[in-house]
């Protein structure tokens, strides 16, 4: 979790302190928000692919707890939650702090969600970095934008 917090500070503070040219949110938000969408598409596709090789899953049964298909389902649910949070906060961040940060948040989202997904399959405690590296940047950027806005 601490590594995820460091990731958040490096991402948000690093982009803000780099002094990138201002890009309007209407140019950057579509790309920034497409990144979580592409991660979701990959996860949905992986779950759908698993159904072709498991008779119980193709018949609509739930995945057995602890199975790779079950883990993928848990990762998907958490990623939907994170994507919704991002979709609600990133537009405010982009309008307040500039669109470049939104693009970096989108790229960071992809990296962090993949780390979460892989970490969950390797050993559930390893998912902590991916969770924190997704959640903390969104919250930190949102709080920073709120402080600037106020």
TrEMBL record:
Keyword Cell membrane: no
Location(s), subcellular: Membrane
Record field: transmembrane: 27-48, 83-116, 128-149
InterPro entries named among the record's database cross-references: MAPEG-like_dom_sf, Membr-assoc_MAPEG
The entry's keywords: Membrane, Transmembrane, Transmembrane helix
Record bears the keyword Transmembrane helix: yes
Name of the protein in question: MAPEG family protein
Source species: Arenibacterium halophilum
């Amino acid at each position: 979790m601490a590594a995820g917090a460091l990731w958040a500070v490096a991402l948000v503070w690093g982009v803000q302190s780099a002094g990138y040219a201002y890009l309007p949110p209407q140019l950057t938000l579509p790309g920034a928000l497409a990144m979580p969408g592409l991660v979701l598409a990959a996860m949905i596709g992986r779950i759908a692919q698993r159904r072709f090789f498991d008779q119980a899953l193709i018949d609509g049964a739930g995945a057995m707890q602890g199975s790779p298909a079950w883990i993928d389902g848990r990762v998907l649910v958490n990623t939907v939650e994170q994507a919704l949070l991002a979709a609600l906060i990133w537009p405010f961040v982009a309008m307040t702090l500039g669109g470049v940060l939104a693009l970096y948040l989108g790229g960071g989202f992809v990296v962090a969600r993949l780390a979460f997904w892989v970490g969950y399959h390797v050993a559930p405690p390893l998912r902590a970095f991916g969770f924190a590296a997704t959640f903390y940047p969104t919250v930190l950027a949102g709080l920073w934008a709120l402080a600037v806005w106020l």
